[in-house]
Design a protein that fits this description.
The protein is an alpha+beta fold. The chain folds into two domains: 93 residues, Glutaredoxin; 107 residues, Glutathione S-transferase Yfyf (Class Pi), Chain A, domain 2 (Up-down Bundle), CATH 1.20.1050. It has nine helices and four strands, in the order E-H-E-H-E-E-H-H-H-H-H-H-H. Strand 3 and strand 4 form a beta hairpin. It is globular.
């Protein structure tokens, strides 16, 4: 089977290592599946042929011999279905994995983005300082709930799954923020995820791509 993942050829340094193609690439590394990269140079994401694959011009998009799809959560769930290592072992586990993938993307990630993205894209604007406490409060509520779920658990479900890939890549956005440090079990959980050899392999591969295509 030939698998292709779209990725940007280069992004500014602050985004390197965090672009969302890292999610399916990590899942593929865990599964031991090879893939090709479809690299997008500046502006290529707006070409009609790419928009037919990824309607929003984002990355990643995915294709194999049977399907094309977009959105990182959908992609990693599909990759799990191809892998003996990552495939759900029961209908209940499949349901839990799907629920936690969606929770990471819908309940946690928007609150993380509200905290970190304004300072990255609107630095110096007057509203930033007043908005941050509000963003911190909303994120703290979500992290408190997640921390409660993770009490006594190593993984979101009974074993490492693609749900942990999505959640770890979300939490990485606040890895250095005090708001995460307030929850030692989440820090420990994130460290467990990022210590996996497949993550290191994937991160190195993404950074290598950017280094080769540096502007």
């Amino acid at each position: 089977m030939t698998i292709t993942i779209s990725a940007f050829a280069w992004v500014p340094p602050f985004a390197q290592g965090y672009v969302k193609d890292i999610r399916p690439r990590w899942a593929l590394a865990e599964a031991g599946l090879d893939y090709d990269l479809h690299l997008l140079s500046d502006g290529a994401q707006d070409h009609a042929d790419y928009r037919a694959w990824q309607p929003f011009g984002q990355v990643p998009a995915y294709r194999d011999d049977t399907v094309e799809l977009f959105e990182s959560g959908a992609i990693v769930l599909h990759i799990a279905s191809l892998s003996e290592v990552l495939a759900p072992q029961s209908k209940q586990e499949a349901a839990h994995i799907q629920a936690w993938v969606i929770a990471a993307l819908n309940s946690i990630e928007p609150k993380v983005d509200n905290l970190i993205l304004p300072a990255a894209f609107h630095a110096g604007e007057a509203w930033i300082s007043g908005f941050r406490p509000h963003a911190e409060h909303l994120l703290s509520l979500r992290l408190k709930s997640l921390s409660g779920w993770m009490k006594g658990r190593d993984w979101l479900v009974d074993r490492f799954t693609v749900a942990d890939i999505i959640m770890a890549t979300v939490l990485r956005g606040v890895q250095a923020e005090p708001i995460l440090q307030d929850h030692p079990n989440l820090v420990a959980y994130l460290n467990r995820c990022l210590a996996r050899p497949a993550f290191k392999k994937t991160l190195d591969a993404q950074l290598e791509t950017f280094a080769k295509n540096a502007l």
